[in-house]
Design a protein that fits this description.
The structure is a homodimer of 509-residue chains.
Chain A lengths: L6 E3 L2 E3 L5 E5 L6 E7 L3 H19 L3 H18 L1 H11 L3 H24 L6 E3 L13 E7 L3 E4 L13 H9 L3 E4 L5 H17 L7 E4 L5 H8 L5 E5 L2 H13 L6 E4 L5 E4 L1 H20 L11 E5 L2 H15 L4 E2 L3 H15 L4 E6 L7 E2 L2 E6 H6 L11 E7 L2 H9 L6 E5 L5 H11 L5 E4 L38 E7 L14
Parallel strand pairs in A: 7-8, 7-10, 8-9, 10-11, 12-13, 12-19, 13-18, 17-18, 19-20
Antiparallel strand pairs in A: 1-2, 3-4, 5-6, 6-21, 14-16, 15-17
Keywords (chains A, B): Oxidoreductase
InterPro entries (chains A, B): Ald_DH/histidinol_DH, Ald_DH_C, Ald_DH_N, Aldehyde_DH_dom, Aldehyde_DH_Superfamily, ALDH_KGSADH
Protein name (chains A, B): 2,5-dioxovalerate dehydrogenase
Chain lengths: 509, 509
Amino acid sequence: MDLTGNLLIGNSAVPGSGGEIFGIDAATGAALPGRFAGATKADVDRAAALAWAAFPAYRETALEARAAFLEAIAENILAIGDSLIERAMAETGLPRGRLEGERMRTVNQLRLFAKEVREGRFQELRFDAGDPERKPVPKPDLKLRNLALGPVAVFGASNFPLAFSVAGGDTASALAAGCPVVVKAHSAHPGTSELVGIAVQKAVMSSGLPEGTFSLLFDAGYEIGQALVADARIRAVGFTGSRRGGLALMDIAAKRKQPIPVYAEMSAINPVILFPGALAKRGADIGRAFAGSLTLGAGQFCTNPGLILAIAGEGLEAFKQAAAEALKAVPAQTMLTPGICKAYREGVAKLMGHDTVKQIAAGQEGTDHQGSAALFEVKAADFIAHHELQEEVFGASGLIVACQDLAELHKVIGALEGQLTVALHIDADDHAEAAKLLPELELLAGRLLVNGFGTGVEVSPAMVHGGPYPATSDGRSTSVGTLAIERFLRPVCYQDFPDALLPQPLRKG
Amino acid sequence: MDLTGNLLIGNSAVPGSGGEIFGIDAATGAALPGRFAGATKADVDRAAALAWAAFPAYRETALEARAAFLEAIAENILAIGDSLIERAMAETGLPRGRLEGERMRTVNQLRLFAKEVREGRFQELRFDAGDPERKPVPKPDLKLRNLALGPVAVFGASNFPLAFSVAGGDTASALAAGCPVVVKAHSAHPGTSELVGIAVQKAVMSSGLPEGTFSLLFDAGYEIGQALVADARIRAVGFTGSRRGGLALMDIAAKRKQPIPVYAEMSAINPVILFPGALAKRGADIGRAFAGSLTLGAGQFCTNPGLILAIAGEGLEAFKQAAAEALKAVPAQTMLTPGICKAYREGVAKLMGHDTVKQIAAGQEGTDHQGSAALFEVKAADFIAHHELQEEVFGASGLIVACQDLAELHKVIGALEGQLTVALHIDADDHAEAAKLLPELELLAGRLLVNGFGTGVEVSPAMVHGGPYPATSDGRSTSVGTLAIERFLRPVCYQDFPDALLPQPLRKG
């Protein structure tokens, strides 16, 4: 399929006139076919105006029609066929199997939200019957429903070119809630973005939905995304990316005449706590499993297990030895972009050069575009004293914090920032100690897991992919799973309304 | 009952050592019995430390125990007897009937949240069964529950000394959610606050709940409230008051190392839209009803109907004439505090002196501590051109915006800021025009009502007392009704947990 490099503004495909963007072959750094041109502020204005115009009709679409629209997007993505996978492979360096899996995840995510829309629970319909005879004052008739917030700006992530990008979780949940979406494509995979964007645009048109329900903008820099968040017609933001990027958007959103919510999933090092009983029994097994999780997808997951907390001793030695051996055999892997690769190498170099940090293992060397796994160790007291050791190194780098005892382990946990996940490796005889920690861990992360690693994020009703600041901008929400729809809704109450003036879902019958 | 003037910190009553506060007789400006002394930063630290220490146990109280605690608070408030009403009457100038009604509302609100806690729906329990056989990867077992955010700082409002104060809606919903509460009492009713604070403190002790579940602090200025919001152990804020106060707290909360949500209900002028059909048929009736709503409680309601939008003509003239006649007969009413009375007079004087504004009616004159009703009129174009005419004048002052036609009415609505309520007065033949406006009105306010005024705020499941910024800091929430509990919760997911380590509500059986 030929790429046009056009912006998708409402139902049109429009050549951009901003800065040029090229897809980059992640494995070689060479430019890929297709020339994308960035949007201008006039394009932002046009996309926002169309989204605003589409909003009243789109938010009142019948549930069945909205669900069918989400399913049509899923069908259209599948219909692109292998050219989508091939383009995504080239742009991201991710292997075929991973991207085929991610496509299925993206499609199933859209279908799950279609199901959620059909069930209609998100509307939170409430009915308080009135009572004109009540004393001392009559009781009014009250009806409540959740209403879509308004057009949502979605920022695609580099590390999930399908599942957290143009038609990923933020887009799916915002569309499900009844919000038009304007996507600022991630410039690391413009071709993948265009292909998926066309799939969404086609679904808008074939479903007879108002023009402006969806638009897709490219930008070589930050200006267009910032203009989008500042636009008065945009009413919420979904973002997955760096902490710096997320904080910048939060700042813009807070300074607007009407501030808007920003749901930014920013950074985490996802502590893994190894308890003494589990370490004693199967330290080496856990070490091998950890090495696998750390290096999955070149470690480029928000939920990558970057921090290991354990009490020093034989069990931890067995863990380290097994992890180190496994890591040594792991080939270097192509990273998503030259910039990410460079940042990873700098992060690893910083740890190597840190006075208090000791390197335990290194994966195999690769090309200039590849990252090698790395494992480090630091003493608990040094970790606590050096806050910079909590900075995420995006990629397959892990840091073991060796504690003298459980009391010191508690101290380390007390020093941690908000996280997406915390994993506990425990045996039956660790339960009592684990139970003591849980009240603190519940406040530290959105998801706690036992005897596993957080790298798999199931898309389902009970998932929470979120967590206290600074893991996300808003720890009251999740960006994965059906609960994500609630980010884009607000309650409205209708008092003493005649049936004919009520919104459809609140009418009789 | 003698007032001690003490701070209530955990289970203790402690003399404050900050600035002095006296209850002021609203009708005379004279100091009432009882000398209250403000908290120091050390008191804030102690209250926050106790709240933080209480949090793990309090948030895991069994639903029945938590519900019984809320009911015990209600009983203890009733048990204070008439001395509570008398003190509140003196401190606020509000009449007996109103305060007895407000006490019942406060008590019923606590009981309603007790019911909500018993039903347990707010926990949002979700269960996704795992499937170890699933290909290509096993499906994890996921369980979700809502968890309390942490200790909440509550700022009492001056205009509802019971229902939006020490044991008012914010406190009731935060305690229901499982959050300890530290109240910063409003200095306009310190005696009322102490009496209710002791009622809550007693309920904490008799219910065997951890010390620190509740504390009450006084302060003559702003410093203590600000220190409270800045304290790392406070995790959310409930506030009802001025826009300036709300914005100051939002700013402090956003600048913390870990930002926290602020639920501030700040200001509104609550537009009332009179449609041509309704005006033609019953303009005078609506005018009389409006005068009653405008002057209820000296107009000191967040939902006071401060703005009337209508198309100029005979119907509007009938409305104006009836409203003016009714208002002329309304006696001046004692206002809550000398400061509020002064601000009201200044607001009215500003309208009187405004070039584009014409006074239509004035209520009867009263004492220095009383406010007289006032009604003004302005042309739509002038209203749009003068943004300052949207500023709330807290008290019984209303402004009629006369439009030439429906198109101009639309323009006025487009120029309005976020509101708590919008009221529509319509007849059957106005339905078509009203329907055209509704999509815009839904975005303007949290509650829309037909053929009534917003001054009564029912405490029930379908109520929304909230609305887009700047009516509140967060239009996704309500501060009245059972939905208010959701402000103080966040979802947490437990993956592959052994039953014994799960929190109680997620365990088997």
